[in-house]
Amino acid sequence: MSETNPAATAPVSADAAPHRYTAAMAAEIEARWQDFWDAEGTYAAPNPKGDLAGDPELVAKPKKFIMDMFPYPSGAGLHVGHPLGYIATDVFARFQRMTGHNVLHTLGFDAFGLPAEQYAVQTGTHPRVSTEANMENMKSQLRRLGLGHDKRRSFATIDPEYYKWTQWIFLQIFNSWYDDEAKKARPITELVAQFESGERAVRGDRSWDELTGAERADVLGEYRLAYASDAPVNWCPGLGTVLANEEVTADGRSERGNFPVFKSKLRQWNMRITAYADRLLDDLDQLDWPEAIKLQQRNWIGRSEGARVDFPIDGERITVFTTRPDTLFGATYMVLAPEHPLVEKFTPDAWPEGTHDAWTGGHATPAEAVAAYRAQAASKSDVERQAEAKDKTGVFIGAYATNPVNGEQVPVFIADYVLMGYGTGAIMAVPAGDQRDFEFARAFELPIRCIVEPTDGRGTDTSTWEDAFGSYDAKIINSSSTGSSSSGEGVTLDGLPVVEAKERITEWLERTGAGAGTVNFRLRDWLFSRQRYWGEPFPIVYDEDGTAHPLPASMLPLELPEVEDYSPRTFDPDDADTEPETPLSRNEDWVNVTLDLGDGRGPRKYRRETNTMPNWAGSCWYELRYLDPHNGEQLVDPEIEQYWMGPREGLPHGGVDLYVGGAEHAVLHLLYARFWSKVLFDLGHVSSAEPFHKLFNQGMIQAYVYRDGRGIAVPAAEVEERDGAYYYQGEKVSRLLGKMGKSLKNAVTPDEICAEYGADTLRLYEMAMGPLDVSRPWDTRAVVGQFRLLQRLWRNVVDENTGELSVVDVAEGDIDAGTLRALHKAVDGVRQDLEGMRFNTAIAKVTELNNHLTKAGGPVPRSVAERLVLLVAPLAPHVAEELWRKLGHESSVVHEDFPVADPAYVVDETVTCVVQIKGKVKARLEVAPSISDDDLEKAALADEKVVAALGGAGIRKVIVRAPKLVNIVPA
After folding, report:
1. How many angstroms separate the CA atoms of 494 and 497, rounded?
2. In CA terms, which of 87, 290, 443, 810 is 20 to 30 Å from 317?
3. Helices (DSSP H) in 225-326: which residue ranges?
4. What is the pLDDT of residues 195-224, one digit of tens each?
């Protein structure tokens, strides 16, 4: 550390108390120490090797990797709600340094995204220009808070040297397949070797050698973990792009922009995250995450056990997944999702003879009916399609399938209540046991067959039923066949309870080849394409046959080209019959290239992929870049990754020690990052199979929103309170607690609070507002309470008139016992609270000790003042550094040891015992904490107040709970 003494340059004010701690002094102290920390590299976390290697003694200590969720550099800047998590991790990181850890704590920027692109569309400003300006503003705001980040490790996802490795990871995923037997990803070259040797058969009767290059690519595409396919997608014309399921709101609109979203079929890149569904579920048990977040991931993955059942149709089959194969005899019709790819194949030219008029939708042919219904369904969100209260709609496609258990011909419909996003996109409809099927059957006059014996007294005549009946606690009836099945082999379920019936029918399905027991997941593959400019380009080119080829690693990064128009082509938001046109597709010089891919074929003409990756890509692996940020040759050095994130006791899958961020990322970011980590782990690039071992969700800082009679938000700062009501420019307004934000006109910036009170006061206030994991209302008027705490702290160490130390040198044995007890109880309590991230109670204990010293009067013993400053250091680092230097120390307080309590002083000398008679308190006794029940009872009965209250009455019972309670029951 430098010998520079920044405290020596402190200015002297002309106030009556010229050295009082004021906002102006706080600003000067804070700026000076921030400069000092930067110049000295105070927060540099050394690696065990590489260009960030450092102090070997520090590397030898236990390590802590503490992370915040990536911030997006918004043009609006920060309001006081944003830094809540950043301040919390900073306090925790500082405490960990003081308790002997090598701490990695840094912050980068998740800088690709739609807001910058939309701003570019509106203004013509390159997204990089506005994004970098936003980052500089945010860096300035964060620096002012005194956050102890290792700035050598910071980066932005838009840096080409960063997204080079995002592209590299994409290629690893593209060049991999999931081996179901090994339960892991393997290089695609190993799969090719299996095809070449004949170990794995190619579909059909041709060998691998007989396939063309395009045919081989198609075969491998069925296995690759990153693949392109024509599939139903969420198409948003208003944004000109497709969206992942997670980016569509519950009412079927885009999360950003609130535009309508339609189902459409487009060729898009996907990630085969479904291959990892079981591992993503199972490994949650080993993570230290909030149970609510685990539950959300489990529900999103949605594992369910059941059976696959094949319904023969026109020499082919329709496959369904059901959790109740025991109800197969009750399946009286089938329903396909309108988007199901088999609909066209099985739709005939004309209606079959005898088709019910209600089934045709009034159309002359099945093709007309299907086309009209598909258009109708495409305009509805998934939530609207599955709404329980809505009328059931659908149309017969003109074809019949065979129920495999009894050989019956069942009509096939399309209906919007069946989605391609779950199961196979097809269902066997059992109207007696499912309410949606029941309502559909009634609407279309379809048979309803009772196959589970009702236990509610309704009987088996379904014509009298008002709703469906489904139960696991019942017996199967009307479910037997004797050779009339499609396989010719009968099966009987009658009289069996549901569980046994499921087992028997599943065995029958497998034995006859009509199906098999299987597991289904709600989770769908991750749609990975975006029709945008401001994102990572795909390192993929297409040859003249349309076959995709990966770029060699030597050609990375593939940088974004310049374009004249940043906007994807957007359309009428209500027009579903449109297709994307991306900004990159307009730069023909970039799109059409001649390259030598190093595959032995020499230079050839190719066409680049013109979609870009979603904004989630860069945040799927950023924890790894923090470890080794300047490595241009490897994703991360294995030894460095093992040091910071490798598995160890208590962390069986490795990962970041503490990850703090909002609960809103429960599915999107966290699930995607876990998937990428597992692929990299399987391929041997990392030792950690999970990215984040411990997750903590901070609450939200809320603020009052004031609205006028029109419901429009008015500036909160200009609202006046009079007689319990609120007025803006003389007009009465309503008040409601809600989010803080620019649009709600209630945002308070950290700059404002820092200017008025200082950053240390802001830090203390945000940490003192309440438990970190709960939401809390912002109250600017209450901030002054923490400012006064710092002023009292300052006065206990510094003479406000002279600026000199006011502490005295006193031997530990000469300090009064009350002060020692207050000190050590505070040290013990604050240490436990900081370890448990209970920052509000830690501040309360610091306040209690500080108040004790203030009330005690006289100068504070130096050793007590020093330990008080060390307690404050993680919470208010600037003032702590200043006071530490004034106390005569040349080293920074950042790496000082946190105080340790003497157990002898932590135990209370006495505790208060409450004495009750008939449940009412009659006396309080000060007793030793170790007093026995017998001695406490004697002391209570001898107390003058107790004797007087009893008035000579006898005693029936005495209940003693030493050392705090005695309850006397008179006779």
Report:
1. 9
2. 443
3. 277-282, 291-301
4. 999 999 997 778 999 999 999 999 999 999
Average pLDDT score over the chain: 92
Between CA 346 and CA 397 the distance in angstroms is 8
Answer for the pair 492, 411: CB distance below 8 angstroms, yes or no: no
User: Has residue 279 got a pLDDT over 80?
Assistant: yes
The C-alpha atoms of residue 732 and residue 459 are separated, in whole angstroms, by: 62
CA-CA distance, 923 to 937, in Å (whole number)? 13
By three-state DSSP, how is residue 79 classified?
coil
- The pairs formed by 482-491 with CB atoms below 8 angstroms and a separation of 24 or more are 484/406, 484/407, 485/404, 485/405, 485/406, 485/407, 485/512, 485/514, 486/312, 486/402, 486/403, 486/404, 486/407, 486/514, 487/404, 487/512, 487/513, 487/514, 491/405
pLDDT interval class at 2 (50, 70, 90): very low
Measured in degrees and rounded to the nearest 5, phi and psi for residue 914 equal -95, 130
Residue 796 neighbours by CB distance under 10 Å:
22
Which ranges constitute the DSSP H helices of 445-481? none
Dist CA 812 CA 790 (whole Å)? 25
What's the pTM? 0.85
Question: What is the rounded distance in angstroms from the CA atom of residue 758 to the CA atom of residue 775?
Answer: 23
For residues 114 and 534, the answer to whether their CB atoms sit within 8 Å is yes
Q: How far is CA 156 from CA 44, 134, 253, 295, 692, in A?
A: 19, 12, 30, 32, 20
Residue 119 burial (CB count, 10 A):
19
- For the chain, the first-to-last Cα distance in angstroms comes to 74
CB 441 within 8 A of CB 447: yes
Q: Do 909 and 824 touch, CB atoms closer than 8 A? A: no
Q: Helix, strand, or coil here: 101?
A: coil
Q: What is the distance of C-alpha 68 from the center of its chain?
A: 12
Please, what are the domains in the chain?
303-521 (3.90.740.10), 756-905 (1.10.730.10), 909-970 (3.10.20.590)
- DSSP H or E stretch at residue 878: helix 877-886
- Taking a C-beta distance cutoff of 8 angstroms, is the pair 137, 608 a contact? no
For residue 895, is pLDDT > 90? Answer: yes
* Gap between the Cα atoms of 482 and 504, Å rounded: 15
Whole-number pLDDT of residue 117: 86
CA 658, CA 675: separation in Å to the nearest integer?
A: 19
